[in-house]
Design a protein that fits this description.
Elements: E1 6-12, H1 19-29, H2 38-50, H3 54-67, H4 71-87, E2 90-97, H5 108-128, E3 134-142, H6 148-157, E4 167-173, H7 185-193, E5 197-202, H8 207-216, E6 221-224, E7 232-234, E8 240-242, H9 244-251, E9 256-258, H10 260-265, H11 277-282, E10 287-289, H12 294-297, H13 301-312, H14 316-328, H15 334-345
The structure holds zinc ion.
Length: 346
């Protein structure tokens, strides 16, 4: 657990299941898993992430999503996710999921209702255990499919920035190469016009092009954005020389939902030490540190923050700045944001 209260903006519900819960849910419905020993199963999920192959990585989700096809299972996992985040020292979380991946639970709106109720229950359980956490929901549409406008409408109908578990934003998730955000411009417009915030995944090739397109469709934050480094050069003095897109992201303080371990695992950067999060933070970018998929990457929010701190020798103030950047970029109501910001500033 970190000494600094933590904020996470990019964490997938179907990428953060507890191993024990996976085993129990699988046993209850006769779902065949690649391993039944907890340690072996944990390694299997990790191996998918370590394969540095986005398609194999995404294949691990077939098992987690496959288990989340009843309201009870989805609600349970949503509740546990928030309890786990709070126990890890997270005081504000935005957790995301794609309702279209859970048809067994019901229609899009029904899935959203079940998951958000689970998040709210998780916040209540955590508070009862002495771990205060505010949680909000980001609804994702799969960019490889063609239901994004319907998903955006269902998300808008559930918009609620002030309540625990409330929907605050819309996102485009799934395989990115070949599925540019501009294909879903209509859905993004529906979300924005409906009062939701917008964040769009942009982590795969063509890196800078996808980031530029995310901004083009109105994204207020960029999911990952790690390949923005391709538009930067390390200068002779060790500082960053910025291309026009990187300069724009800096000038407009577009928050980057960086997920360092995941970014290494999918091959966006060779090692954590090569990740741009340290240079970005020190150059004044609105850099934030996130988990993406705690199960597949074998991380927690606190372990990820500690890994970044160690890789770049961050000072305590820099670690706190990452959290301040994150709460400044949160999509919740202003009252919640300033209350959480005060907790981080203490
Ligand atoms: Zn993600």
């Amino acid at each position: 657990m970190s000494v600094v209260p933590l904020v996470v903006l990019h964490d997938h519900l179907d990428g953060g299941l507890r191993i024990d819960t996976i085993l129990e849910l699988a046993a209850s419905i006769g779902h065949e898993l690649p391993a039944t020993d907890p340690d072996e199963l944990r390694s299997w999920f990790r191996a998918g992430a370590d394969a540095r192959d986005i398609l194999q990585y995404l294949a691990t989700f077939e098992h987690t999503v496959g288990l989340l096809q009843t309201a009870d299972a989805l609600r349970r996992v949503a509740t546990e996710a928030v309890v786990d985040l709070a126990a890890d020292g997270v005081v504000y979380a935005e957790v995301r999921f794609a309702p279209e991946l859970h048809p067994g639970v019901g229609g899009l709106s029904e899935v959203i209702d079940v998951a958000t109720a689970g998040f709210a229950a998780g916040a209540a359980h955590a508070a009862a255990a002495g771990n205060m956490i505010d949680v909000r929901t980001i609804v994702c549409a799969m960019r490889t499919e063609n239901r994004s406008a319907d998903v955006a409408r269902a998300a808008v109908a559930a918009a609620d920035p002030t309540s625990q578990g409330g929907v605050v934003a819309f996102d485009l998730a799934g395989a990115e190469t070949g599925f540019p955000p501009t294909d879903h411009a209509v859905a993004c417009r529906i979300a924005l016009d409906g009062g939701l915030a917008l964040t769009v995944h942009a982590s795969e090739p063509p890196g800078t092009e996808l980031i530029a397109q995310a901004l083009e469709v109105g994204a207020q934050r960029v999911g990952h954005g790690v390949r923005l480094i391709e538009d930067c050069r390390i200068g002779d003095d060790g500082g960053l020389e910025l291309g026009s897109l990187a300069q724009r992201v800096l000038d407009e303080q577009v928050p980057l939902e960086l997920c360092p371990s995941c970014n290494v695992q999918i091959g966006a950067v060779p090692t954590l030490a090569d990740h741009p999060i340290g240079p970005f933070l020190r150059a004044g970018f609105a850099a934030t540190v996130n988990t993406d998929n705690r199960l597949m990457s074998g991380v927690t929010v606190s372990s990820e923050v500690a890994a970044v701190r160690d890789a770049f020798d961050l000072t305590d103030d820099e670690v706190r700045r990452l959290q301040r950047n994150a709460i400044a970029a949160a999509f919740c109501d202003e009252a919640t944001r300033s209350r959480v910001a005060a907790v981080i500033a203490d």
